[in-house]
Fold:
Amino acid sequence: MENLIIEKTKSTPEINFNADTGLLQIKGESFPENVVKFYTPVIDWIKDYISSGTKEITFEFEIIYFNSSTSKVFMTIFDLLDEEVGNGKSIKVKWLCDRENETAIECGEEFKEDINLLTFEIETF
Amino acid sequence: MDNIFSKEEDVISKAEKLISLKQFKSIEDEANYVKLLNEYKDLLKQMIKMVKISDITQLELKTISDNLEMISQIDVLTGLYNRRYFNEAYDREWKSAIRLKTPISLVMIDVDYFKKYNDTYGHLKGDECLAAIAKEIKQSSRRPRNVVSRFGGEEFLMILPETDIDSTVFIAKALLKAVENLNIVHESSPIAKRVTLSIGIASIIPNENINMDIFLKMADDALYEAKNDGRNCFKVYS
Structure:
């Protein structure tokens, strides 16, 4: 399966999904004009990747700023991953943020609260 | 994914489909409805979370925006309002005075021989001197609605809404006294061996026929007169 690489723009994050290592990274700011258009290929790639029988996935989110629509997309992704963990997949989410960025930490904690099976770690640097 | 709420729409269409089938008495219906309800509960939970996260980020943006607004209005050295804010406030108060037919006064203040002070004691001392005087001007203004601003280098300007000439003169006298009491040594001043002020005052009950720039010029003219009259004094435009 091919890697998914999307360069970051002013309003969309960098996407760097490595099919070989299972490291999926979303990095930057996310307030796309059309959130569906931007994230549909991203979610499709994740679904394909999971169904391709991969073993371990580490999903890293390093998001400085995101809008409400993006938060909904993230929760959709977390739900999807949570369900796959229920199906026996090994998936870990790392929510990475600057230790000074209290808002980002707080948002990570909010996401974590609603997750059941998926490992969700908040890492500060 | 057609839109971010496609799952909610999906639940609604499923519910509508069940209703249209008109079969409400079986155990299967009950099970279907329980399933739908649970799905919707999850989505609603997600929606509540989304709003909560949104509130967190909005609060941060609001705080940043408030701070930026404050920074854009304040003179860094003295902590008084800057000229930009003065312009906004003057426009607002002038219009309000016309509408309510109340007096408005301007007090224009200049530090006497400030260039000589800077040349003698250096710019750091000059800054300290301006900050100390700014503090006295702020204190002399008394009412929170009064706008005290640094207009330029060593020039300050106060807007006193709903204040007549007598009250304005009282403030000017008190300010001259307060700066005298500060007793900031100024060896190169030709008029006193301490820092002094010249003050120009203009007071008016404005109407639509008077231009606010001309009223500002009146305060400036009064200040010019105070300077011509030996400084360390105030003059009222007449």
Summary: DSSP finds seven helices and five strands in chain B. The interface with chain A takes residues 1-5, 7, 45-46, 49-54, 56-57, 60 of chain B (CB under 8 Å). Helices of chain B lie at 6-21, 27-73, 83-100, 114-121, 123-141, 165-182, 212-228. The two ends of chain B are 75 Å apart (CA to CA).
